[in-house]
Amino acid sequence: MLALCHPSASVAQVVEANAPAASSDAEQGDIVVTGIRNSLRTAISEKRETVTIVDVINAEDVGKLPDQNLAEVLENIPGVQIDRNRGVGSGVSIRGSSQNLVLINGRSTTPAADARGGISFDDLPAELIASVRVTKVPTADQIEGSVGGSVDLRTYRGLALKEPIRTIRADMEYAETADRYNPHLAAVFGQKFDTGIGEIGVVLAGNYQRQTVREDQLNVRYLERTTVDLNGDGTADPYLRPNYAQQFYSINDRTNKSLSGSIEWRPSSNLTLFVDGTYVDQKNVGSQIGVFMQQPNDVSELPFQSQANIEERTSSGYTYRQMTSGLIGGTQFRSTGESPIRNTESYLAAVGGEWRSGDVSIRFEASRAGSDTIDANFQLVAQYSDPTGANFGNANGRISPPFLFDASGEDLFWSIDRSSPLAANIGNPAYYQTFIARDNYTYYHNVENAQRVDASWELGWGPLRSIDAGFRFNQTDSRRRKTTQVSRQFPGVVASSRPDLFQIAPDDFFDFTGDTYTGGWVVARQLTQDPSAARAAVGLAADPPEDLGARFQVKERTYAGYLKANIDTTIAGMSLRGEIGARLVHTDQTASGVAVSNGVVSDVSATQKYTKVLPGVVFALEPADGVLVRASYAKSLRRPDFGQLAPTVVFPIINNYVSAGNPNLKPQTVDQFDIDAEWYFDRNSLLSVGLFYKKFHDLVTTVAVAPQLRDPALGYFVESNCVGGIWNPVAVDLTGAVGICTGINQPQNLGSATLKGAEVNFQHSFTYLPGLLSGFGVLANYTYQDGKRDSTLAVPSLHTVDGTPVQLSLPLRDLSKNNYNLTLFYEKAGFSARVRYTYRDAFLRTEATDVTNNLPLYQEPRSQLNASISYDINPWFAITVSGVNLTKEASRERAIFADGPLTQERSADRRFVFGVRGKL
Predict the structure, then answer these.
(1) Of 1.25.10.10, 3.40.50.300, 2.40.170.20, 3.40.47.10, which CATH number belongs to 9-228+231-299+313-377+442-484+547-699+750-919?
(2) Are 154 and 18 in contact (CB under 8 A)?
(3) Band of pLDDT at residue 597, cut at 50, 70 and 90
(4) pTM of the model
């Protein structure tokens, strides 16, 4: 939250240029960090002067919203939708795609794991941001790698300061459900010095935040059964029923320590040199207390379910049967304590400069970005069993309390039937025998070195204003290493004998629904940070062995060059500006790893080389004063994620499904066409309407491939005969050995897809109204998107009421059809207030996941209400109050269809922030 100054002219901090140091003064423009209207005015001015289709948010605009990170900042932009993890902004979708590119001062960043796109949106605090520039249509001089949009975070620049800047912000956040207070401190210091060796500008920005948030989660997995005659015709009828459910109480402790700084030196009027860098240390420590209830797959339904309500439902034109409520017995009741952590250190450092001589300017720089991540989880599962029985130490000793299930209403409900005597001892540690322990650590290492030279020659040859050309060389190295160990089943640890490893779960799950969910059971404590005692208790090694089959490395070398002509002329009295160019990109890529099959370890690798031409054309016509019409075409490129290219597989810590890479994946390319009309009818007012169309080629899609047999103890695949599918309880390989049939999710290039849409953006300040009413303003935007693939997905495990297999036409991932943001603001006499309401339509999360038994998973429509208020006590200090997720709306997900069975529900914190902003 960056707005740290009083919004009066007497204390105005004028900051020129949040662009990279290599940009010219003319390109940088003035950014006045003094109030909402000035921020909107400078952002609109930058958008208007740019030929390409961009959206800009400047520091004061960001700083007075209750935005915690870059993802939440971007939610203000038309065509941008965000996802939330435990209530905190995380993923970002731009024009229906989450395959975006995150830059800092125009330079590439590295991911937290094995994806593409750069640093995680939730790792970048808003306090480091001087401005954000989102480019939806790439130009030839921009780094390739996005089929959605490029997000360029601009940090503060020393030579851009007209006055010193010394600002500080201190906040205290209260997370309601977690019942925790979360401190936050941020500061920006900068000054420009006139010295005997030229001008020197120095800026340093820092951020520290400690945040604890809570999310309650319940998911139910549906499995089709065909062993019951439902209509009395003498034959079994297919229907969906729950066979597995999980309920979690998830606490996440997030600590962010970040620093950004730059030193610029201008020894002469034609030479500028700079060194800058950004460092982010993000630590997420979780405690996920859960319980899962599973009904064996080989049981006959009728003795184990009663009061069942099985209904015919219609989704996406298919009519099928689903059990929507009932009492289910014959289950196994097991608690699970998981301790997920993610620690990521990211950095970006650059050195370079700009030299000018007459009509020629040359910009040069070298940069290095990197990230190291530890992603770990220790899971301890305990079974609710009868301590007086002979089978207390094995699966047959389980106590099977019945469970109530209801998915017929708005909220998902699954809870133990507390009226049953079988549920009487769920809070007694003596009734819990450790079932299994799983210990999983994954290490990611990413490095990207880049060198580039860009030149511009101002010509003035008629309509040809200038020519830009440049070269960029890039060297990328992405590695993954994993350690995994699993204890034997029932290692002999009873919860009552190890109170240091177990605790009692809370009983306030989903309080907002008014229903009583399962609580008060015995479950493992948080173990990942110090798992030594748990490892020793269950017989695991003190130093986990490496899972060789999960190891991979991707080395990539890219060579890119571009040429771009800039047009500026007049046609029939109308100003016409344009850019015509092309980018030539060559990629040399090697993916290597270790394959394990039948116990034999061998090195594997695959190499790809390809060259792509990415043309781009954009024109901006001004038919009348204040009116702009832009039209553009561009071809963009997105390489597959590093993990998708891995020639190896990853066995998950919990479920049977594995993830397999595909080193032969081709890059996706997109042809995109845009036309945009903009009316600047006041200094800080804008009305724009835009249409866009995209054609995706070689679309990367996750598909469920045929199951293979694996050894559950060793993890690797063996020669298989999985005739019974993944739910066959006794699968046998060709030698007669018993194993587990495992479903495999793998990325593949599946055809093409199209996307069309429209954006409407409106900004206006009512400064012409009398008196206090002149302080009001509004920001509103709406986006419509409609995507279609040219391939369908067969679902052999799902049938209609007449027995016909379902064939699905899936939308694109992360594509919400209708989306809008509405912000009302007021700013007058030192008082500033905002209320923002955001709505996002349903969208496809993934084509196959374990949560849906390897079928599609959809996110339901969701809205959120945030608000903020600030008051300037004097020219140096202001107090702030803000609220996030004020309506505390739950997040719900559905299986198979967008309106299919309710399969998952999550409820995150409502949060309130109290703080002070100061100018020193």
Answers:
(1) 2.40.170.20
(2) yes
(3) low
(4) 0.87
